[in-house]
Amino acid sequence: MQPTHAVAGIDPHKHTATIALVDVRGGLHGSQSFPITPDGIGDLLTFLLGTELVIDRIGVEGSGGLGRPLMVALSAAGYDVREVQANRTAERRRRRRRAKTDIEDAEAIARETLADPDLPPAGKQTAPDPVWEQLVVISEWRSSLIQQRVRLLTEAEAVLVSLPVGVRSSLPSTSRVLPQLTALADGVATDETLEPADRLKIERLLGSLTDITALTTRIKTLDKQIPSLLGKLGCTLTEICGIGAVTAMDLLVEIGDPRRFSTEAQFARWCGSAPVALSSGEGHGRAHRHRLDLGGNRNVNSLLHIVHVTQVRCHPPAKAYMAKKTSENKTKREARRAHKRQLANVIIRHMWRDDANRRAGSLAALSIAA
Prior knowledge:
The protein is α/β, with parallel strands linked by helices. The protein folds into three domains: 111 residues, ATPase, nucleotide binding domain (Nucleotidyltransferase, domain 5); 103 residues; 121 residues, no CATH class. The chain has 13 helices and seven strands. Helix 8 crosses helix 9. It is globular, with a radius of gyration of 26 Å.
């Protein structure tokens, strides 16, 4: 009797994980939940070993976050673990008008794993990398500080417009909040006849300015640490026009180990820069219309868009490429999509080369030490 092949889908949460098994014909073979503890992960592995199905692949949603302990354990056990983007299962659920439960999510993850054999490997790093972990901490910390600063500036703007007209007229005529707060701190809007509530508003704004200044100083301190960490990783992404130290850091943090992508096409599909065919009536002919792939990593896609905008503004090769695409009767949106696809190729090639050089250097250092 031939064994039945199947895939598994895991929906991890903070304390529990739910797994569903789906065979190659699409039949559901049950689901079960386990606590994310050493014993719970052991029970999950026992559950997989106890099934009569042959597990070809296991899809994990959020394998770089909540699902990381599961990904590490499953990979160590020899399973082929893949990453399933959360927006892919959400789209499937909306399309089929399904409920939102852990069991439904685990089944949806399994079906996405079954439908796409080319899903990227789970996790961002195949092996621990202390320098990369430092970049992750700095990136997350910096993002949190920026969000706090944006919130303070947004709240300050709402308070500024509620000040008396006489006070507002003495402030700089600009839409930017920070110069107006600085003017308040310099005493431009001092008025002895202000109401107590208005004085409290100004006191609040001055306190916000102090907090914003402290956050800005901390962000700049973090920014100074980024170039040295990029140098330790041998990163050359900053040589690409439009990519600075912060953008290079964000790309490294989001992409992780570039070796988990075997081809440029796989990376482009993962980050959403590979367009999806949107055409009809060509039969066996080549599709002429395409649209944006919403199933990829939106953070990396956003970074690609930023690099594209910068290059089109000041990089002659990018300008020539866009002009070439326009001459081929491509719309501006289609030309932009093609350029982002090209940028994805350039970025992953740089990362592959940097990784190879770094590993060669490590091997040389070990041979010298030996």
